[in-house]
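hey so u asked for the seq, here:
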Amino acid sequence: MRYVPFMKKRCEILQPNTDTVEQLLKVIKCSPIFASILVNRGMASPEDISDFLNPSLNLLRPPFCIKDINIAVQRIYKAIKDNEKLLIFGDYDVDGVTATTILYQFFCYVGIDVSYYVPHRLTEGYDLQVTHIREHALTNRIKLIITVDCGSNSHEAVQAANKVGIDVIITDHHKISRPSPPALAIINPNQPDCPAGFEHLAGVGVALYLLVSLRKHLRDRHFWHNRPEPNLKEFIDLVALGTMADLVPLTFENRIFCAIGKEVIQDSKRPGIQALVEASGLKLKVITAEDLVFRLAPRLNAAGRMGHAKEAVELLTTIHPDTAKQKAGILNQMNVNRQHIEIKIIDEICQHINNNPHVLQKGALVFTSSKWHLGVLGIVASRLVERYHRPVVLISTKGKEGKGSARSIPGFNLYKGLQACSKDLESFGGHPAAAGLKIKYEKIKPFEQHFEKIVQKMTGPNDFLPIITIDYVLDFDHISDSLIDELESLKPHGPGNPAPIFMAKNVDVLSSKIVGGNHRQMQLRQTSGRTGKTFRAIHFNAKTDPPLKNSFEQIIFRLDWNRWNGKKTKQIMIEDTETFTI
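ran it, structure tokens below
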């Protein structure tokens, strides 16, 4: 068998340049542990470190070099002057919903005749289509369409719009799978000939930068003389939500958006955010970046997955607290329904794999069903990638057609893989780690075979071993309040800026109990520790089958504050106890 068993993991311990660490300690005040982590993450100068640890809107790079952005703002300015009807065409995920909201609210403030349209995931599918031009834009006398988080592959729709005199401005961040659509302007940092260096932005980040450019364009033409110039910081809460939910790298602008956005949310006056936070069982003033990703974003996403994403836009745009509370309740129930359906599909697929273990000899997992809810397939695929560490494609079929979601592992570029199989597909789009596709029913089997060959060709055995990157081998003696405070300054965490991971060896379990069904709460002490320090630890989703271990040769863990009833205590968050080192 080519692929090693999926249960194994490999561990890579980072080794910082000791000379660089020593030089860093001479110019900044921090612990050697923290300095090592900074060096491991490519930060060696005091200026880089200061910018990273002190995110500020003043550090944002100007967007004026993004290709076509000047063409776009000139056309929008004409629409404002001539009072043309403007349509914002969005996407149904959190990135698309938040991008739709900020553009809609900005143009409402400007006073232009603006509306928005978000397609239904199940009945209309992704992206701007010819039917949207004929049945919505044309009948509503739209003169200008601005897409957000979509449109980069909408060739036929843009051509249809051009034929009837409707201009299209595309704002997006997805890869373009073929020559660009004939839009008036394409604002997409990921198009091949865009030199701006903003490839990491989410769709909502691209939309915000359009507003930054447009606001300046209007300022230069004295537009704001009769009304206050809008403070775009008021949109950063939604930019943070969309950015974190879309799992783009939390570096450069994205880190600034998310750090400042969390602060804006904590002081939010937006009724929709207030209601969503309350429905999630949270409190505004103490909300964390993790809450945005794991509590708020899933509820906003549930609208597009289980119903219609316009519910999420209506929640974020309403100025009425009662309406916001009602909408948040609807989204909350949708999220509960989503969780139930998700669990059912995961259990079904895992049971199939347990009954047919030979499928794990393949490099990719491709499954099809006519009974699956299309709206949850992306989440289910992500869960299966976490469990089996293989690229996963899930296809929901209806009649002679199928629609699917795909997720991948770090060692396999999913977008390029699907591109290599494009002859089997009706359409596809996405990123190296996540994608969506449409396929004819009779093409599913050939696609599965072709995709498997592509995965084998583009990967090696080590790509199928989950890798845990260790920032530092840390003795319990060196765990302190000040160290955890230093680690806190690295937040928010996400792709491109993961939480620091540590390793400790020879750890004894002094006490242990199972909480919440399958979480193991422990009191730990390191055998070789000189100080005898003990720490509270929690291992979520631990193996609880007896006998529970009373000691570990090594543990892989994170450090964080455990906050409860206004108090905080040091806590070890165990990531893994069974791994091997490379």
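Residues 31 and 483 are 7 Å apart (CA to CA). The domain at 356-464 is CATH 3.10.310.30 (Diaminopimelate Epimerase; Chain A, domain 1).
lmk if thats what u needed
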